Every structure is written in C-alpha cells, then in structure tokens.
Amino acid sequence: MVTQRIVHIREAMEKDLSTVLSIEYKCFKDPYPLSLLNRLLIMHPDGFLVAEVDGKVVGYVIGVIKWRATGHILAIGVDPMYRRQYIGSALMEQMINRLKEKGAKLVRLETRKSNIDAQRFYLKLGFKMVGEIPYYYEDGETAIAMERSVEN
Ligand SMILES: CC(C)(COP(=O)(O)OP(=O)(O)OC[C@H]1O[C@@H](n2cnc3c(N)ncnc32)[C@H](O)[C@@H]1OP(=O)(O)O)[C@@H](O)C(=O)NCCC(=O)NCCS
Predict the structure, then answer these.
(1) pTM
(2) Domain total for the chain?
(3) Which atom, in ligand 1's list, is nearest to the CA of 118?
(4) Which range of residues forms the domain containing residue 38?
(5) 129 pLDDT exceeds 80?
(6) Is the CB of 120 under 6 A from ligand 1?
(7) Residue 56 has what pLDDT?
(8) How many CB atoms lie within 10 A of CB 29?
(9) Is the pLDDT of residue 59 over 80?
(10) Which of 35, 62, 130, 135 has the largest count of CB atoms under 10 Å?
(11) 142 CB less than 6 Å from ligand 1?
(12) Residue 93: inside a domain, yes or no?
C-alpha cells in the first residue's frame, strides 16, 4: 500500500530554527549559522517558510524582495530522508506566490556550479540559467544565476 504523506507549509517560528539548522548542516558544506537564521526570521517573518510532515519540520525556504520587483531565494533545503516527494517544489511554489503578492515580476537565485541536482530541480520549476558569477562562494566556487519570470 502506498501511503500519501500530507505536507503542511507554514511560516517558520523561532522554535523551528534548531531543526532548520540541522537540515542546513545535512544540505550544505557552508551552512547558515543559527544567528543568521534568527536574523532572517526576525527581518522576514513572512519570507521564511517550513514544510512539516507528521508534525516534523523536514524542509524550509527563505525568500525576500530585492529591488522592488525581484524576488530572491536565499536558501532552500529538504531533509535527505524526505527528498523527491515534491516537498521542495511545494515550498518553492508557495514562496513564489508570496513574492508575486509582494510585487515580484522576476524570481532570481544562485546555486553552486557543481550542484547539478539543484539546477535540475530549478529547471523543472521553470527557472532558466542566465549567467555565471565567478568566486561567488567563500571557497571560490562559481555560482550559476537562475531566473524565472512570474508575471502573468
Ligand atoms: C534541491 C532540493 C531542495 C529539492 O528538493 P526535493 O523536495 O527533493 O525536490 P522535488 O521532489 O520537489 O523535485 C521536483 C523535481 O526536481 C527535479 N529534481 C529534484 N531533485 C533532483 C535530483 N537530486 N536529481 C535530479 N533531479 C532532481 C526532478 O525533476 C524532480 O521531479 P521528479 O522526482 O518527478 O523527477 C533538495 O534536493 C535539497 O535540499 N538539496 C540540498 C540543498 C540544495 O542544494 N539546495 C539548493 C541550493 S541553491
């Protein structure tokens, strides 16, 4: 029997941040520190979403408006145990809708050039590669910039 998991997406709360931090550590070699996650939550309470399955936080996304009409995805991560279940897609769609409501016409993000899985994920969501940014990351890696128009 295939069990369908119910995914609940909601705004993050301070009590979620330790779990978000642990997901960051599972996802990235340069995770955001707790102090930065805390600051982002305070500054952008409606731009920090988490995905819950059975009451457990298993993913998050952070998105903000920059330059009035551009939404910027700062981070997204899904616990490895819960990947390929469209949780990342659900987080992105909800975030994109929020950014649109705030006036975004375009959503932009950067991803490591070596992160082919993330590039495939974003391509599937309709993002296009628009350029490279050399030395974008602290270890010197190039970023791939990706954008999606959200005007309709
Ligand atoms: C990228 C990430 C957020 C995707 O989350 P997810 O919940 O597993 O993604 P979804 O299930 O919504 O995937 C939707 C589609 O994206 C593509 N995709 C997602 N992960 C993929 C992978 N590892 N390899 C290839 N394609 C992938 C597929 O087309 C997938 O659809 P399919 O399963 O029907 O083929 C997750 O892999 C992750 O947390 N990675 C580590 C952190 C990271 O790299 N974040 C982005 C940094 S810029």
Answers:
(1) 0.96
(2) 1
(3) 1
(4) 7-107
(5) yes
(6) yes
(7) 97
(8) 10
(9) yes
(10) 62
(11) no
(12) yes
Q: Is the pLDDT of residue 115 over 80?
A: yes
Q: How far is 69 from 149, CA to CA, in rounded Å?
A: 11
Sign of the torsion angle spanned by Cα atoms 134, 138, 62, 40:
negative
Report CA(121)–ligand 1 centroid distance (Å).
Answer: 5
> Tokens in use for 102?
């705030």
In a domain, 19, yes or no: yes
Q: Looking at the domain assignment, is residue 113 inside a domain? A: no
Nearest one of 57, 71, 12 to 37, comparing CA atoms: 12
At 68, the pLDDT band (50, 70, 90 cuts) reads confident
Q: Report the side by side order of strands in the sheet with 56-66.
A: 7-11, 48-53, 56-66, 70-78, 106-112, 143-149, 128-133
**CATH label of the domain that carries residue 24:** 3.40.630.30
Indicate whether 66 belongs to any domain: yes
CB distance 117 to ligand 1 below 6 Å: yes
Question: How high does pLDDT run on average in the chain?
Answer: 95
Please give the average per-residue pLDDT across 74-81, as a whole number: 97
How much distance in Å is there from the Cα of 91 to the middle of ligand 1?
A: 11
